[in-house]
Amino acid sequence: MPDVRKSKAEIPLIDCALVTITTKDGDEFGFDTSNKIGVETQTEEQDAIRLVVKGILRAQKKKKVTIVGTTITLTDNVFNPDLVLVLQGGVCTYDGQGKLTGYTPPVAGSTEVIDTFTLNAYSAQYDTSGDIVNYEKISYPNCTGEPVAFSSEDDVFRAPEYTIDSAPKQGEAPYTITYVDELPELYGPASFTVTQNLTNATSSYTKDKVYEDAPFTATITATSGTLGTITVTMGGEDISSTAVTGSTVNIAKVTGAIVITATAS
Questions:
Q1: Which pTM value belongs to this model?
Q2: CA–CA distance, 51 with 49 (Å, rounded to integer)
């Protein structure tokens, strides 16, 4: 008998290890409370055309199936306000300690435009010893969420189901699969503002917030003249002596709002 080539890879996968959302502005947040992701490919079909003469099939043009998108059903086990904001918009309110105090969805009949996002789903690959070898990452592009509803039941923790539609753009794949050695590390969930008072200078850090416990790095560059002293406060406390080295600001662990002041003259 002829030899048959064996497949190059056989990858056993299990678990909904992590889900992350990448927003249109490049911000990414993740949650490990989801335990199920259901995926259904959406297609448009063109029926087959058959030539049947006197009960005999003479010829046929096969049907065509075109992938137009993906419907994702994400089952979570907690209320995640960041996720709901991405799916349907609205406003979350917090107190001074970062504790959620309320959520208001868009008003009925709202014309609010919700930005698209990318959903990244991670699963674990194990070997025969029970160790994790790596993680599979499936990314679904150009996602939008459907309106969210919340049900309750006695003695049952709420497990919201979120419906997400992914519609790839022209020439874009409906999803991509990559393999990574480890999961992204989750920070937060609290975030702090970053204020940069720069004169004749620019910063490599272009966002206006940073997550709690995350590291922070920014390089200050003079646009004209010579860069003077850089001062940095975090949570209202001056930390310039430990955070500033030359023109670089390095903070190992963010615990408060950051204010950077620098002038080039």
A1: 0.70
A2: 7
